[in-house]
Amino acid sequence: MPKHMWTNALLASAAIAIAGCGGDQLNISGPHYVSDIAVPNIKAGVNFSFDIGVVSGSRYFFTDRNNASLDQIDIPSKTFVKAIQGTGPLAFTGLGPGPNSQAGPDGATAVGNFIYVGDVNTVKVVDPAVGAVTSKITVSATGVRADEGCLDPTHGIFMISSPEETPPFATFINTSTQTVVAKVTFTDLAGKPTAGLEACRYDAASDNFYVNVDGSTANPHGELVKLPGASIRAIPNGGTQNYTTLSGVAMYPEGNCDPTGLALGPGSDIAVGCREGTTGAPLLMQIFNRSNGALVASLNAGGGDQLEYDAPTNRYYNAASRWTSSGNASTNGACSAASPCTPVLTIVDAGNRSVVARLNTGNNAHSIAIDPATGLIFVPYSSATSPAGCPGCAANGFVNGGVSVFAAK
């Protein structure tokens, strides 16, 4: 087992015993690397384009553009099960010739026994029991993706963002009928389209949707928007309304953040992952009071995309693909040979709002999911040399690309 997997760990209260190569087995206390899982057609030199992951039951699912599939991994055995690919009109777009905005699949959300998957123009509905895409829900016809989503299980409403539309909009879907019931557009108070939309979450306790907005006129580097569920449900069936006109809407400034991930924490906390595009800016995770938007903590723990909270460990897990050795953003926030990144899995104690550990991860490892039952953490990554910008990835043992598995404790 590669000893480097723990070289970047910062443990607050537990010591780590490092296992060396050759299968020596020592007791390990604290978060640690477990194993790697190979993905079909992903190998050294391949740029692995993946996106959001989710745990549902005893399986981990994540979106895979190289194979135009939703990939399925069995959690107890830590083995690859199947690349679920649709056919005909139910096929995923895949990489395609254009940018990420025209590629898919993208976001993945567990909705009852199904997985709702964002794709170009559509949400694809996957039935894991049969290992197939069973239907699709059309949200636009412009050739750009429906990206990340979140579920209100109480009222059976699924929200998914289309960040590259002009203006960006969110689509709300009745999960019983699999039909679009409303849309919310994002033109700001100055009459300008917002810069885009990122992760969203639904808080059942307050009946609010929350979504990260990339930027508005008032908050050019990001705002956290609260969308009251009652106001969404009040939109006439099939209707469209702008977010600024919704009753009870609130916009909370996020500072110089350029937000990505979002996670509901304990109490009234909500954590925002920042991926600053300002060269040299501190890479932050911001924790807000979700009832009033007050900033309660700002940690040097950003640079990621997907951000998850795990209740059993009371910790946040951030797939910080753009973390750097200095903790500050690389040139324009992007990884390159001239301005490299050092990807890590950042773990934050949600109780005292402090960094617990940083574990080395592979190239462009920006997606994460944790199984609350086993404490296993799943982090896809690309090969060490593609995309450029991770000179330490090969030395750290992340060469071929695939899915790395960590344990929370």
From TrEMBL:
SUPFAM superfamilies: Quinoprotein alcohol dehydrogenase-like. Gene3D superfamilies: YVTN repeat-like/Quinoprotein amine dehydrogenase. Residues 1-19 form the signal peptide. Keywords: Signal. This is Uncharacterized protein. It comes from Paraburkholderia kirstenboschensis. The lineage of its organism: Bacteria, Pseudomonadati, Pseudomonadota, Betaproteobacteria, Burkholderiales.
